[in-house]
Amino acid sequence: MVHWTTHYKPKDCKFPFEVYCVENYVGNHANTEISIKKGNLIKVYGECDAEGHNTEDVPRTSKKVNGIMDVNYPVFDPGSDKMWIGELVQFDPDESYASHKIGHFPIRNVQPKDIYHVEQEKARVKRVEERKFQREQEEAAEEAAEEAAEEEAARQAEEEAAAAKAAGTTVPAKASQVPIHFLVRQTSSDWVIT
Fold first, then answer.
1. Within a domain: residue 191?
2. Residues near 170 by Cβ (< 8 Å), separated by ≥ 6?
3. What CATH number is associated with residue 33?
4. DSSP secondary-structure letter at 5?
5. Residues 8-37: what's their mean pLDDT?
6. Number of domains the chain is built from
7. pLDDT score of 1 more than 80
8. What gap in Å lies between CA 110 and CA 123, rounded to an integer?
């Protein structure tokens, strides 16, 4: 078996395409695999098996993408055990990545760009709906707590009034229940309390 690095030239691919990593993968760098992390953008050139052998161009099909028919759309099977050969295009370099940028990685860990963007939008809409539902639940709980506190205060006031009535005393009125008197000037020399 011949490894792809001995005969395959990825840059000769006529129709490379881009994919996003959706699941982290730590590659065997000695076998020219690359490590990828969620959100990494990778340009794909070809396909091989897990050992880097049986290299071929990625099979193509026709698919409408954003209203335009793409006759060179890559056949994407997330259940495949094959690998794609690609180049890291967008990533934050650290020691977990291979020193080489071009290598092979599992198909199941990535999604073509168009599918990735659709899935990201679905996830965003779901998060917004979940946050809205959570806020509504929190507001309903706050309203219920306020109503319960008001009902408890009214119940206590009724109990105090009933106890005071039974004892023959009066309950001191709350500030909001105290009548307000105003001084009204009727004539130039008389002040009347109303």
1. no
2. 164
3. 2.30.30.40
4. G
5. 91
6. 1
7. no
8. 16
